[in-house]
Amino acid sequence: MAFERSDPNQSKPSKLRWGELEEDDDLDFLLPPREVIGPDENGIKKVIEYKFNDEGNKVKITTTTRVRKLAKARFNKRALERRNWEKFGDAVREDVGSRLTMVSTEEIILERPRAPGSKPEEMKVAGDSLAQLTKGGAVLMVCRTCGKKGDHWTSKCPYKDLASPAETFVDKPTASETSVAASGSSKGAYVPPSMRAGAERTAGSDMRRRNDENSVRVTNLSEDTREPDLLELFRPFGAVTRVYVAMDQKTGASRGFGFVNFVNREDAQRAINKLNGYGYDNLILRVEWATPRSN
Amino acid sequence: MRPILMKGHERPLTFLKYNRDGDLLFSCAKDHTPTVWFADNGERLGTYRGHNGAVWTCDVSRDSMRLLTGSADQTVKLWNVQTGTQLYTFTFGSPARSVEFAIGDELAVITTDPFMELTSAIHVKRIAKDPTEQIEESMLVIKGPQGRINRAVWGPLNRTIISAGEDAVIRIWDSETGKLLRESDKESGHKKTITSLTKSADGSHFLTGSLDKSAKLWDTRTLTLIKTYGTERPVNAVAMSPLLDHVVLGGGQDASAVTTTDHRAGKFEAKFYDKILQEEIGGVKGHFGPINALAFNPDGKSFSSGGEDGYVRLHHFDPDYFNIKI
């Protein structure tokens, strides 16, 4: 890197010197070429330019700069010489635009291994407590506001006023409404709870609709399979709001398929991933989204 | 940090070497053409054309005037670093696997692979100041180790030669008589092929990396095992920082694991370990294939890695690298 500090000093138009040595006045508009004397062993570089000033006189401008390298001053003399070597071999025909050497577009960091003793253990503990709750046989309490499972029901949510976590229920328009409501309340006006940030939008019907969007279809069920069986099979993946097994009224046997509705979409996705192809009661289950859905 | 990516090689990298002043980086690959780059911005300076086989190794003289390269075409060539012209060619009966200039650049140690009836051998050649006076014959030939000798380096004051290879035993030989002075202990030593070896800046200790997924630090004089660093991957390349107490291991993947692993792009990493505490400091990801070569700039402020993907990645450390604490 070179750092230039410039020191322009203008010399007066010297009347008796080069300006008058020009014999041909018709060519007065021509100026001598720009000269660069530069940088000598002290790094001093001189640039001599000629131009016409406002009065139409020829003017000689000498700019003296010192070129100094700030970073990489540690390069020794021979390394600097090598910098000026000519390219050889395959590099001879190299143009500046060749893409051989590129700076990475990504920032790469020296990734520290997880701070000793903290994160993975914590994650495991949280997961365990949840698993314990479900396995305890207790009903899984699902709070719709904070999404925290197993702690409290929605009406008892301590975080009633906060925005619900973005996981399953975010639609874009909802998000923008939320932000508008939030800004409204910040002005000090009263905002009814139904319009506050994080409140459930038209709770009831929306809830049911969303549940049906997290619906999983299970096919190739054995004829003995009933709702409790499906519930038992799918509960480990998360909170289940509804199970249904299609029944043949005449024979009382299962028609071989059913639906399971999850509270959380990820639970549904995990259930699909794990149970599709799972052998259950001597049949291989087929588990997929209830309506054709990608991502 | 923003690594500089240099894609000058079409084939996997095999070796990387900085010159003594740290302004040039030499890279060897399986594509027959060693290349020299400027170590500050990764700009390519030139290539050395002439080999007919994969180039496994190289070393540069202290004045950065001469380059020695060893290749699978059974030759070791001496080049003029500046112009790229060949000065001399040593011919062997089998691929050359490792070369190193001695202190003073008047000798070089070269190892050759086992090939047909020939066993692997360590050759010591005198390098004449004037290439026209160069003689072909070796001053000393040492035979003995079974299998490939992947690396042979000079010990302190050129008195000894340290070799390591496929038989997982490190040997120290007298450089004048060729007598075996020491062998590494089988119990505590590596269990599989030793792929790489690098000396500390002062030559008092050296680091070996092996396919047994570990790297070990040894004392040069007594060949006692000082430290062991464990990883989950076979180690292909090792490097030691000349500035801080860090060692870097670069590895690959067992051949058996190749088809079953998820090849997320840029997953292969160079792992940094604290030299003394043996603990992992972190990893630098980015390579698309196993890392085959690692080298630290002698000033310790940058390092480069070469991978199976043909890329050389040149990393200049951020200031907070120098403040890392475990």
Helix content of chain B: under 10%
Quaternary structure:
heterodimer
Structural class of chain A: alpha+beta
| Contiguous helical run count of chain A | 7
**Which chains make the largest contact?**
A-B, 30 and 47 residues
Largest pleated sheet of chain A: 4 strands, antiparallel
Globular, elongated, flat, extended or rod-shaped: what is the shape of chain A? elongated
Structural class of chain B: mainly beta
Amount of beta strand of chain B: over 45%
> How far apart are the first and last residues' alpha carbons of chain A, in Å?
50 Å
Q: Count the helices of chain B. How many?
A: 0
Query: What fraction, in percent, of the residue positions of chain A are helical?
Result: 10-25%
Task: Give the ordered list of helices and strands of chain B.
Answer: EEEEEEEEEEEEEEEEEEEEEEEEEEEE
Radius of gyration of chain A: 39 Å
Briefly summarize what is shown.
Chain A is α+β, with helices and mostly antiparallel strands and 295 residues long. Chain A has seven helices and eleven strands. Chain B: It holds the Pfam family EIF3I.
Features:
heterodimer; A: 295 residues; alpha+beta; 4-stranded antiparallel beta sheet; 25% helix; disordered N terminus; B: 326 residues; mainly beta; globular; RRM_dom (chain A); RNA-binding (chain A); eIF3g_N (chain A); RBD_domain_sf (chain A); Eukaryotic translation initiation factor 3 subunit G (chain A)
General description of the model:
The complex is a heterodimer of chains A (295) and B (326). By secondary structure, chain A is of the alpha+beta class. Chain A contains seven helices and eleven strands. In chain A, the strands form three sheets. Chain A has a four-stranded antiparallel β-sheet, with no helix packed on it. In chain A, strands 7-8-6-11 form a four-stranded antiparallel β-sheet. In chain A, β7 (240-247) and β8 form a beta hairpin. Chain A is elongated, with a radius of gyration of 39 Å. The model of chain A is unreliable at 1-15, 117-137 and 164-186 (pLDDT under 50). In chain B, the strands form seven sheets. Chain B has a four-stranded antiparallel β-sheet, with no helix packed on it. The mean pLDDT of chain B is 91. With 326 residues, chain B is an all-beta fold. Chain B has no helices and 28 strands. Chain B is globular and about 50 Å long. Classes of the chains: A alpha+beta (295), B mainly beta (326). The A-B interface holds A 72, 74-76, 78-79, 82-83, 85, 87-92, 94, 99-104, 106-113 and B 1-8, 21-24, 33, 35, 37-38, 40-49, 63-64, 82-84, 266, 269, 272, 280-286, 299, 313, 315, 318, 321, 324. β5 of chain A pairs antiparallel with β1 (4-6) of chain B, so a sheet runs across the interface.
